[in-house]
Amino acid sequence: MFSLFLSELTHTLETVPPSLVQTCVSKFEISIHKTLQEMMTNEIMPSLISQVLHHVTNNPLHTEHAMNFKEELIPLKTFIKENIECVQDVMHVNDSQMQSNADQLRQDISELKHAQEAQFHYITQQIADLHNHENDKLDQIKRRLGDMNQIISTLPGKINPPPALEEKAPPPHLHYNNPFLNYVHNAPPVPQEPIAQHPSENTISPVPLAKGEPEWMTLFPFIKHDIDKEVRREIWKAIPKTSEWETFNGELPYNHELWLQNIDVFVKDYYLLDHMIVSRLTTILTSTAKNWYLGLRNKHGDKSWAWWKNAIRNKFGTDNWKWRVQEEFEADHFYLENRKIHKWFNTQRDRLRAFQPELSEFLFCTKILKQCPGTLDNAIKSRYKGDPSDMCFDEMVIIAEDIIAKTMRSTRPTHQSSYQSNRQSSQTQYPPRKSDPQKSDPDTKKTTPSPNGAKGPKCFFCQQTGHLSKDCPKKRNRINNVEGQSGDNNTGEEETQDDYDFDQPLNSEDEEDDKDSALVLAMQQHDLDHPI
């Protein structure tokens, strides 16, 4: 039957298309492979692994190999542990280094931040100062424009003056109603004051230039004074010696503008010419300035004094110098203990003129007062009765000196007054004894002549020389007259009171005695001899 089945199946398969047979065979193969794979995975491999594990666990040789393997792993474990610890130490060192670097970086950033803030504040202050400076210049321009408008408004009246009114006699009927009493009234002639003719000031005018002269002579001409030669020759005889001229060394700190101003004063006062000034430059210039001048003189030769002034300003009037002068001005503050008031104010004004010469007199005073204490600034402004914008520099210095001398400067006790007060206290504690041979009688002081031939000390009581107030006879007579009713019991008190030294400076302890003496003296002047 099976062979019959196979034969029939063969005949049947022959009738089936080969593609269908191939497809069925491939599907059957896939199903068989899948079944076998599942069987291997689920049944054969687990049982095989379990048997192998069972055999391995039950094998007696396995424990020995395991122990040997552990012993071999111990050095490797220690080596790995040491390396890990080294790596950990390196990481800790790097961590601390990174932390210190981070702190240093944080500090640098903080310093940079503060520096940037300071620079920003400085720039802001400079901008504010420039803004204030521009506002001041604008106000100054406005004031000048107002003055110009006022001058322009007065020009028509000066150019075309109104016609002079003719003096006419008043009519007679203006005096009396009665015509017989009228008379011709002639007003007395008004005396005309002679107009003082001011002599024209001698101005310095440049020499007229001819064609073909160099350009520097046009920009910096030679000096020419319009004055008589005989008069000029007499004035030249009074020119100070070169050794009396102020020198300039060109080393910081310096003020070349003030030095040039002094020379210009000599030029105007003594009518100096260019060669008279330039010939003295080798003497009045010293150190760095002299070396610079000699090098420039060899290069350019003879030039006018105006040319040399411009060269000196270009050389020494640098921005760095102006910045240093400004720093000196801002750092120099006035203190009430400073006794050289005029010197400090003049120095500050010269510094201001050095780096801000275009400021007006009002701005000079304002900036200088900012360097003074607030109390002095307010006191000066309140003491000045006019408009603050009209206050000049000299008035400000005079007011400041008066305020400091009278109100603000603290009166400190001198060494002499403290010594005398100590002497007075020691005399009261330890009165002199009559049996003491070291102290001489006070009358010997009176008779001893002075070594210099002077008249001697002056009494503060009677204002006469030759004795002290404690030995004044008028004072003793006054005490006898005023205290005559007290009797002889108070003679000891009078003697101790007369021992007081009235010639020492007044202090808080002897103010009452001075008031009493002044009161008694006033009583004597008004014939009030009886005590009140």
Biggest β-sheet: count, sense, barrel?
A: 2 strands, antiparallel
The total of beta strands comes to: 2
Low-confidence stretches: 183-209, 411-454, 479-532
Task: Write down the overall geometry.
Answer: elongated
Distance between the termini: 180 Å
Mean pLDDT: 73
Computed structural class: mainly alpha
Query: What radius of gyration results from the CA coordinates?
Result: 57 Å
- Which bin fits the share of residues in helices? 55-70%
Number of helices: 20
* Helix-strand sequence: HHHEHEHHHHHHHHHHHHHHHH
Keywords:
532 residues, 20 helices, 63% helix, elongated, disordered C terminus, Znf_CCHC_sf, zinc, nucleic acid binding, Znf_CCHC
Would you kindly provide a written description of the structure presented here, covering whatever features stand out?
The chain has 532 residues and is mainly α. Among the domains are: 20-59; 60-147; 208-317, no CATH class; 340-408, no CATH class; 459-503 and 513-532, no CATH class. It is 63% helix and 1% strand. It has helices spanning 2-15, 18-58, 61-159, 215-219, 229-236, 256-270, 274-278, 281-284, 287-300, 305-316, 319-331, 341-355, 361-370, 374-383, 393-408, 415-429, 442-447, 473-482, 491-498, 511-525; strands at residues 204-206, 223-225. It has a two-stranded antiparallel ribbon with strand order 1-2. Helix 11 runs antiparallel to helix 12 (341-355) and helix 14 packs across helix 15 (393-408). The longest helix is centred in the N-terminal third of the chain and has 99 residues, at 61-159. Residues 433-446 have a biased composition (Basic and acidic residues). It holds the Pfam family zf-CCHC. Keywords: Metal-binding, mRNA processing, Zinc, Zinc-finger. It comes from Puccinia striiformis f. sp. tritici PST-78. Residues 458-474 form the CCHC-type domain.
